[in-house]
Amino acid sequence: MSLYSLLYDSLFLPLAAAARRRRYHQLRAFLERSQWWPAERLREFQWSELRKLLEIAFRSVPYYRRKYADVGARFEDIRSWDDFRRLPVLTRAEVNRHREELFPADFRGRRMPHATGGSTGEPVRFYRTRESYDWRLAATHRAYSWSGYRPGERTLYLWAAPLPTVSRWAAWKSCCHDLLERRLVIPTWLQNEALWQQAYQRALRFRPRYLVGYVSSLLGFARFLARRRARMPRLCSVIAAAEPLTPAVRAFLSETFDAPIFETYGSREFMSIGAECELHCGLHLHAENLVVETSSREPDQPGDILITDLHNLGTVFIRYAIGDAGRLADRPCACGRGLPLLESVDGRTADLIELPDGRTVSGLFFVHLLKELPEVLQYQVRQEEPERLTLLLVLARELSAPSRALLESELRKVLGETPYEIRSVARIPPGPSGKHQPVVGLRASAVNARPSEIP
Question: Would you say the pTM of this structure is higher than 0.70?
Answer without folding.
Answer: yes
